[in-house]
Design goal:
Layout lengths: L1 H12 L10 E11 L3 H6 L4 E7 L2 E8 L3 E7 L3 E8 L4 E6 H6 L6 E12 L2 E10 L4 E7 L11 H4 L4 E9 L2 E11 L17 E3 L1 H6 L3
């Protein structure tokens, strides 16, 4: 389960705002979870997902109920990951350069298909992403919000905008995200501080991987 959630976190980071056209903003998503495992669905009830961005700085807050939580902050050069859950509070602070040394991001296949719908007031188009393991993610994206440097993120730069709704199926658990609000300002700029809070155990990427993540 840890592997699934961390993979999900990486997917969510990939649609983040490495350097969005807008100066700053805050997007809140509603999460719906369907699973044949009633106990798992119950533990993940109340899951939340938010994105904050200002210039090259961005922050993604993800909480999967009682299972797992992760905050990812980047200032354009360094990345701070704060994880919590059954394994305790863990922190990883690394640079984008070191992260790139971990290996090339797996290739993805993107298909643009017919379909339109409005999400949070934005007109969105449909795309289907298939990764190397055959996992499918359905994206509904708007071209009104774009990345200044899309090659750094957003499905390897293949999506010409930001996904305001997306759905993925992982081992029979269907997770759907849809933006409920898009704000163009952030009141609390301290959200982007690259500081490990008290109570977190600092780890390296290698140590995190050794935990099965």
């Amino acid at each position: 389960m840890k592997r699934i959630l961390l993979t999900l976190a990486v997917v969510l980071v990939s649609i983040g705002f490495t350097n969005a056209q807008a100066e700053e903003g805050h997007i809140t998503y509603k999460i719906s979870i369907e699973s044949d495992d009633a106990a798992m669905a119950s533990m993940m009830e109340g899951s939340t997902f938010e994105i904050f961005f200002k210039g090259e700085k961005s922050r993604i807050d993800m909480s999967m109920g009682m299972m797992f939580s992760m905050v990812t902050i980047t200032d354009g050069k360094d990345i701070l990951m704060l994880m919590g859950g059954m394994m305790g509070k863990k922190a990883v602070l690394t640079s984008k350069k070191d992260l790139e040394k971990e290996g090339k991001e797996p290739d993805v296949d993107v298909k643009f298909v017919s379909g339109k719908k409005k999400v949070a007031g934005y007109d969105c188009k449909k795309a289907i992403i298939m990764d190397g393991d055959g996992n499918e993610i359905v994206y509904w994206y708007t071209e009104k919000l774009k990345l200044a440097d899309p090659g750094q993120s957003n499905a390897q730069g293949n999506i010409p905008g930001i996904a305001l709704a997306f759905e993925m199926d992982r081992q029979g658990m269907v997770m759907s995200y849809i933006a409920t609000s898009v704000e163009e300002s952030i009141k609390d700029k301290s959200l982007f501080k690259m500081v490990i809070p008290d109570g977190y155990e600092k780890m390296t990427m290698e140590e995190m991987k050794s935990m099965g993540m």
